[in-house]
Amino acid sequence: MPKYARLKGTQDILPVEQPYWEHLRMRVAEIARAYGFERIDTPIFELTELFNRGVGDATDIVEKEMYAFKDRGGNEIALRPEFTAGVMRAYIENGMQVLPKPVKLYSIGPIFRHEQPQAGRYRQFHQFNAEILGVQDPLADLEIMLLAWDIYDSLGFQSLAFQVHSTGCPICRPQYVSLLAEHYRAHADAICDDCKRRVAVNPLRVLDCKQPQCQPIIAGAPKMLEHLCGECAAHFTKLRGYLEHLGKPHTINPRLVRGLDYYTKTVFEVWAEGIGAQAAVCGGGRYDGLIELLGGHPTPGVGFAAGMERAVMVMQAQHIAVPPLPAPLVFIAFLGDATARHAAQLLRALRQAGLGAQIAMGGSLRSQLRQADKSAARFTLIVGEDEIAQDVVTLRDMATGEQETAPLNGVAQTIVERLG
Ligand code: HAM
Fold first, then answer.
1. For atom 23 of ligand 1, which residue has the closest CA?
2. Which of 40, 82, 88 to mutate to test the pocket of ligand 1 (most atoms within 8 A of CB)?
3. Ligand 1: does its nearest atom lie under 6 Å from the Cβ of 236?
4. Which structural domains are found in the chain, ordered by start?
5. Nearest 5°: CA angle at 122, between 116 and 127?
6. Per residue in 125-178, pLDDT tens?
């Protein structure tokens, strides 16, 4: 056993896995930019209070999962357990409220939750996240949902489907919540201990309880969609109309409530065929009260976030091909100590000419050539004493195996010509 091991729920992303990550990051950035989203990076830690208020005191994330602590200056801070609250803080703090609407932002980075690790669930993981601010029309919900969909679709994910629901708003939700609580109180003997607690602190969460004993109670519970106010019902109908018009398969899931308190109206997930059966790969929804709650002008918003580890797992499980990361074009091998400085000078000249190049760091010529083979370089340059005396080098085309003698001065030019 090594003396130090990585902490539970964390991962090393090794070089062999990097092509998947790079491909995923590139796709996210390409598609987000093509759809008019601009990148925003916010700090990895914020005041704990921001998440308490934004995500909600009674959520699992804040209650049980946040990496929250006092720093050396005595500030109560937390490693971000999600992007949205921090992005909203940045939007308010940087005066972005005066920008023309919509403001469309995306982010990529690490997220921290002290959860029980299992396949696809970590304590440090990565999300890509997108938000649209300033638009009440469900066209913004549609745009966010399509961004998520198109990213997975472009990666080659199979059997994509939307799950959608509405969680209402401060006008209709309280009435629904009291009906739900009444239903649960009537079945108090039959429900699990967690649900007994949830009914008191976060009643909507009873709907996504997985305990077998609670399933009949959920099935018989009043349905949010039957208790939406006129505005929320119209919003949901319009969104569904957009989805139907575009031929996007979606299932209304009355148990979809999601684990963050800020949601109003639309909530959704994208499901995909993953390592086994279809399951959620990302989730999001509308949060029309959040910016005001955090001290900004009332501004509607809608967004989603997606776990990147899960996306990489699916890419690997489904054998989705990803392009290899580009290796330096040229590998320089040299014969003997006396030629090392000439080889280093050549390396410098190639790099200055804009060609990617690396050099062997000692060893026999044989082992250097083995390294050249492994390096995936397109050309190997071999620098020997005789060659130096004649101002030439040996240039090997690794694709064809052909070898030629090229003038030392101007070898970069020769390489460019050989590349056509
Ligand atoms: P969330 O559902 O908490 O939403 O997380 C979004 C996604 O992050 C999940 O669908 C999953 O892919 C991934 N994820 C969550 N926890 C873990 C974990 N422990 N390990 C690996 N992946 C994980 C949010 O975070 C909201 N902020 C989304 C949002 C943005 N809503 C509006 N705007």
1. 307
2. 82
3. no
4. 15-172+228-317 (3.30.930.10), 330-418 (3.40.50.800)
5. 135
6. 999 999 999 999 999 999 999 999 999 999 999 889 999 999 999 999 999 999
